């Protein structure tokens, strides 16, 4: 009887624990790849991270990079010098709306007179 009660109690408590869930959008262009990761911490709060990676051979020669990203419920922009490091990383957190898994995020990257666009998706089918 005591073992049965312990099993039921453990099952109920483990169902109450909140485990973070992750949604990842990915995409690429000729020169860049990107991923936008949303980690849902609980029912309300989340953190978001955009990573843009230069796929070329010499990131030190890229110079200043401007980027912007837009989705149905969010967006942002920034500028950063790519000096030896291949990655641009931007992050935020909050409790606002997050993109649906079947939506897309548009990313534009500009550098040295060049401009490339990417569409990031989760691979989930649109209904």
Structural class: mainly beta
CATH fold field value: Immunoglobulin-like
The main pleated sheet reads as:
4 strands, antiparallel
What is the CATH first-level class name? Mainly Beta
Distance from N terminus to C terminus (CA atoms, Å) equals 49 Å
Residue share in β-strands: over 45%
* Order of strands, widest sheet: 1-2-3-6
Number of strands: 8
List the defining traits of the structure above:
single chain; 127 residues; Immunoglobulin-like; four-stranded antiparallel β-sheet; 1 helix; elongated
What would your notes on this structure say?
The protein is mainly beta and 127 residues long. It has a single domain (18-120), classed as Sandwich (Immunoglobulin-like), CATH 2.60.40. It has one helix at residues 2-16, and strands at 21-28, 32-40, 46-54, 63-70, 75-82, 87-94, 105-111, 114-120. The strands form 2 sheets. It has a 4-stranded antiparallel beta sheet, with no helix packed on it. The protein has a 4-stranded antiparallel beta sheet with strand order 5-4-7-8, with no helix packed on it. A hairpin with a 4-residue loop joins strand 4 and strand 5.
């Amino acid at each position: 009887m005591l073992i049965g009660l312990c099993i039921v109690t453990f099952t109920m408590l483990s169902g109450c624990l909140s485990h973070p869930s992750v949604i990842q959008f990915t995409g690429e262009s000729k020169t860049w790849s990107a991923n936008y990761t949303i980690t849902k911490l609980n029912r309300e709060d989340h953190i978001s991270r955009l990573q843009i990676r230069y796929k070329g051979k010499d990131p030190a020669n890229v110079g200043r990079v401007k980027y912007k990203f837009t989705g149905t419920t969010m967006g942002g922009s920034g500028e950063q010098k790519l000096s030896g490091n291949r990655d641009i990383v931007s992050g935020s957190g909050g409790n606002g709306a997050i993109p649906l898994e079947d939506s897309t995020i548009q990313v534009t990257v500009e550098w040295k007179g060049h401009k490339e666009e990417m569409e990031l998706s989760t691979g989930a089918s649109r209904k």
